[in-house]
Design a protein that fits this description.
Chains A, B: Keywords: ATP-binding, Ligase, Nucleotide-binding. The structure is a homodimer of 699-residue chains. The first copy, chain A, is of the alpha/beta class. In chain A, 38% of the residues lie in helices and 21% in strands. Chain A folds into 5 domains: 134 residues, Rossmann fold; 142 residues, Succinyl-CoA synthetase domains (Rossmann fold), CATH 3.40.50.261; 161 residues, Rossmann fold (3-Layer(aba) Sandwich), CATH 3.40.50.261; 77 residues, ATP-grasp fold, A domain (Dna Ligase, domain 1, 2-Layer Sandwich), CATH 3.30.1490; 114 residues, D-amino Acid Aminotransferase, Chain A, domain 1 (2-Layer Sandwich), CATH 3.30.470.20.
């Protein structure tokens, strides 16, 4: 059993190994921070050349540090780290934070050094955070093992970040805003402890209500999904991913030495794990803060009460684009609103009390609307006016918030003039934004989390008819790395995928015999190890009605191939029954280095590339997730009868995705599979693999 | 000739009509603001009950105010406004700002009152701003006719806003950030002066370099496009539109009493007018400020120099998603960079100088990279570290900015710890953001403006073969409001659109004769005034190969129609030659209440609704704009030979759009036209109207 992460946040005592006496050194800053925020355990600077630092007795080495001590913070040059870890292990230290850089991120010798460090730590059952990180904070124990200036307000957001700079930037950005945190953890190179470990730890921690994460690259993707999808059922996890584009991924890679998988795989994984992904740093905290303060909205119906129409219109746009609507206010309620507001006020939604609106006007709105059952969220907005005190309005609103059990988000458009109002709001756990575009984004994220919580128990795919052993054997014996239709047909069949009836024919006579047996009309396809994309070279003839047509089709095909690809060796012909009418889609799998089998679904033909209308998922997935992956695409809408169009066998598509997932899970040697096209028949009639190809790994 | 707007910003003297002695009244606030910011002209409070207010002599009415005075600010109840305007006109006032509300936005009597006010103003050739607004500011003359607290820094952004609250919010939001403005104008109900007038005024004003606009609804769309597309060739116009969604539009409507046209029309108009549209309030000023400070980037190649990899990765993502790339740094430059940076620093792009980077490290980067010709933009980034002074780093960067003639944007992730740095940056006209997501957005907007400036001289559509008079006559005489294929064929032909050959037949015998004349294969279509969507009811039979087939097709069609639409009267049949193979697209026109003919282009069939892949434009448009409207869609990519596919006659599509535009411009009685499908033939072979319908206005 691996040791808990608790000593990183609530250690019994902390040794800072390599504490400098020079106030300009980071190690000195760490020691200072340890003394500033009320940490109650022992604080032990380790420095063989000092007697005391910042008034604390210094120790020559870790072995001399008195009990109790279970956390060490190492701030010495990278090459000294193995020796330090040995000493820590001998001293009985449970957790070490390695602040220093010079490891994996510099490549070469740094990579080796990391491996050595991990071995040493494991031999002592010590947990490591870092290297190349800025440490941890616990707002409850007062522990601050970082050199970051300042410490945020106490609250219930646990923040984990691969980047130390992002941690530092965030502490600075949110410092004055009163956004409350419980923990900070900066993980750096993640030699041992990674974001999945910290998310699991926060998941169990009673002081954490919301988890926020900044992630660059995840190493063990399947474990991430497994652990995080459990935690997210209990606590919302808001995540910002860097390296979403190629350029960003290269920047991440040169930064951490980690290789990120494809962003499509990350997105699929986040979705399957119930992670709330945000697009930028500002949203990360807007969303986490709202989730940590306010109940989730019951539904998507909002009322805006404002002193100014313009910002309310901007907010309305963003609400609508996140799926929210402005609820209708009943005539009776409108009459009640009008009774005490400015006679020119608008009493429909947005309720516009006009520029002079004061605290009692907001109060009146809440009093009238509090009991309207179809309001899920209240959005009071104010643009400061010279004659109205925003803080007074804020006090009225937070007072109402105490009794109203709905979601309340406030927006006050301004900077310095709304500073006091924000203090009032945030100390009373009502989130306030200064831009009208924020509430829509925040509510959108809250709503998506509510939908995740509402998802019913997932159904695993279960198949009893798979011939796993036979496919293992087949793959073991094949010498090719690229398998075309002839090779993939038996594999597809063994995994219960429907194939169009057909047989291989060596020559004209065999082809005629097969066609006779199948019955016309038939399809003729060229078989050649050199030809993977048959249709591009005229290697497919459809709808052949008779023996004569078959002969001439074959003759023309051979001529075309001989011209287009003279080097191609024609080893035979596939003769297949002409398929019935249906809709052609593509399903596929590509093994992602981070998350494993990345499943794909999309429209067939040129449209898949043109419209990039592709659904992604990570195997293993549940039946529900497969349905969602298909339904989220426009192609999925077509399958389900878009605008009165025909409906196709969606269930058969989901079944095929499940079978292909299982194939990928059972056979790690398969790098890629593409069923293109999968012919989806009308509802209830199934789906047929018309062609499939596969790429095996070289190993 | 209408009078200039200059007196709204640089009047010779200002009378404030209805100035209260009570400091809690808005009118008092206005008088106070007039005295605070160095305005040099006369300031005349008008109040019959006061001798002096704020130490200034008060006048009983406007006629008593001494010369010179050319601006009046009216702050009295709405019903008194006509009398005030008369008095102002008699006194020779050139410009009046009506602050008071109670006009169009309250409906009914308010609408009438506005009309009366406009008539009075026009009779004296006075210009009006408002009603229902917060006035104007001029950072150079010191005029402040608003009651907004505070005044921003002096700079070169002219800001026009329909919403007064947005003006006030913005002054507050940017107050501490040192973003420099030249003018503010809040327009309220826009009874006389509207955003187009102000944009034209700013366009001619030497102190305005960048125009920022907050717009809710535009009234005269065609004039907006005409004027703004001229101004935008000289000065960038950054615009935020409220009411983009239905909910937002309703909020705008209840706020201003204006009805906005469709957002698709607004977007098309903004594009054609060279307006830089932004999505939110924060971007409005980030973009305007950068444009007013920095040269446009020559191209899309950026170098990031940073003290922290995480924020640089986030910035890289946003750069990439806006079409920017991180330029490669040559081996020689990398070597030079490494010479003086931290030995562990990354010297590829992003250049990561690591946490300890100081001012001289940034200096070193600039010194090495300044002469690399393929860098268009420098993006220095810093996350504050306890041992480095951000202001010192800022001073180094602005010093470099003085000699480097490239675009420089800075990012320092933090709040209070980067406040002094921001002062250094902004007083030296280097824009600084605190979130790493900002520079990508800002550069994307700058790049789109550069592309607008680079557009060559536009080519108007010119047609000499249009039978305008004949169509006028036809439309004048038709009694129907909905025209089907039979009715639209002559109109299409008169505007030079190619039709598939065909004729109307009354019965079977005529149909056979027409088919004989055209030559088989033919298409048979039902003609019935009750049937507009023929294919839905089985009213179209394709590819009829012979006389026998035609007879049986007709019989079956009649049976189908009789069953599906027993009420439909079959008045005849269209017999047309079967069209050759091509790609089916839709072109259309819908008259927008704001901008006039809104042209549309999209993929034919079910896909247009599924993928919403539609290009929009406002007629009249140039040939280049029509090409752009088509090319911006995925369908346009298909026409041009996507991934080695066939290429179709794009020019014929553009020609058809031009002809349809002209039809809409020539005949305002046409509300809607839809050519569906337009069959686009292979390159050089043209495009054929296969079906078209039209809706006429009732007037």
């Amino acid at each position: 059993m691996t040791r808990s992460l608790a000593p990183f946040f609530s250690p019994s005592g902390v040794a800072i190994i390599g504490t400098s006496q020079d106030p300009r050194k980071l190690s000195h800053g760490i020691l200072k921070n340890m003394t500033l925020y009320g940490y109650q355990g022992g604080i032990y600077p380790v420095n063989p050349k000092a007697d005391q630092i910042l008034g604390l007795p210094a120790y020559p080495d870790i072995s001399a540090v008195p009990d109790p001590v279970d956390l060490a913070v190492a701030v010495l040059p990278a090459p000294m780290t193995p020796a330090i870890l040995h000493a820590c292990g001998e001293r009985g230290i449970k957790a070490v934070i390695i602040i220093s850089g010079g490891f994996k991120e510099v490549g070469g010798v740094g990579v080796e050094l990391e491996k050595e460090c991990l071995q040493i730590a494991q031999s002592y059952q010590m947990r490591l955070i870092g290297p190349n990180c800025v440490g941890t904070m616990d707002l409850y124990t007062g522990l601050n093992s970082t050199f970051i200036e300042g410490m945020p307000a106490r609250g219930s957001i646990g923040f984990v970040s691969q980047s130390g700079a992002v941690c530092g930037g965030v502490v600075d950005l949110i410092g004055e805003k009163g956004i409350g945190f419980s923990h900070f953890a900066s993980l750096g190179n993640e030699l041992d402890v990674n974001e999945t470990d910290v998310i699991a730890f926060f998941g169990d921690h009673p002081q954490v209500k919301v988890i926020a994460a900044y992630v660059e690259a995840i190493e063990h993707g399947q474990r991430f999904i497994e652990v995080v999808s459990q935690v997210s059922k209990e606590k919302p996890i808001v995540l910002l991913k860097a390296g979403r584009t190629d350029a960003g991924a290269r920047a991440v890679s040169s930064h951490t030495g980690s290789l990120a998988g494809s962003y499509a795989a990350y997105q699929a994984a986040f979705k399957q794990a119930g992670v709330i992904e945000v697009e930028d740093l500002s949203s990360l905290f807007d969303v986490a803060w709202a989730l940590s303060c306010q109940p989730l909205p019951e539904n998507n119906r909002v009322v805006i009460m404002t002193n100014s129409g313009g910002p309310a219109a901007l907010a309305s746009d963003l609400l609508a684009s996140h799926g929210f609507e402005l609820v209708e206010i009943s005539a009776e309620k409108q009459r009640q609103l009008a009774e005490k507001l400015n006679p020119s006020a608008q009493v429909s939604n947005p309720v516009d009390m006009l520029g002079g609106a004061e605290a009692h006007d907001f109060d009146h709105c809440f009093n009238v609307l509090a009991d309207q059952p179809d309001i899920d969220t209240f959005l009071p907005m104010l643009v400061p006016q010279s004659l109205v005190d925003p803080a007074e309005v804020a006090r009225a609103i937070v007072n109402q918030a105490k009794t109203i059990k709905k979601t309340i988000l406030a927006c006050m458009v301004g900077d310095k003039s709304v500073g006091e109002a924000r203090e009032v709001f945030h100390s009373n756990r009502v989130p306030m934004s200064v831009y009208p575009e924020v509430p829509g984004k925040v509510l959108g994220a809250m709503q998506s989390y509510r939908q995740w919580l509402e998802k019913s128990n997932p159904t695993p795919f279960e198949f009893s008819d798979l011939e796993k052993a036979r496919v293992c054997d087949y793959l073991h014996h094949t010498e090719r790395l690229v398998l075309g239709e002839v090779d993939t047909r038996p594999i597809m069949a063994d995994y219960g995928l429907n194939l169009v009836p057909g047989e291989l024919a060596a020559d004209r006579d065999q082809a005629l015999a097969v066609a006779e047996k199948l019955g016309y009309p038939v399809v003729l396809k060229i078989v050649s190890p050199q030809i993977l994309h048959k249709s591009d070279l005229g290697g497919i003839a459809l709808n052949i009605a008779s023996a004569e047509d078959l002969e001439s089709a074959m003759q023309q095909m051979v001529e075309r191939i001989n011209t287009a690809a003279p080097e191609a060796e024609i080893t035979g012909y596939l003769v297949q029954k002409m398929a019935p009418k249906g809709m052609e889609v593509i399903i596929g799998m590509k093994r992602d280095p981070t998350f494993g089998p990345l499943m794909m679904f999309g429209l067939g033909g040129v449209y898949v590339e043109l419209f990039k209308d592709i659904g992604f998922g990570i195997a293993p997935m549940t039946v529900e997730q497969a349905y969602e992956m298909v339904s989220a695409t426009k192609t999925g809408q077509l399958l389900q009868g878009f605008r009165g169009g025909p409906t196709y066998d969606l269930h058969a598509v989901v079944d095929a995705i499940g079978r292909l997932s299982q194939l990928a899970l059972d056979h790690p040697g398969i790098d890629e599979v593409e069923i293109n096209p999968l012919l989806v028949l009308p509802e209830g009639q199934g789906a047929i693999v018309l062609d499939a190809r596969m790429i095996l790994s070289e190993a």
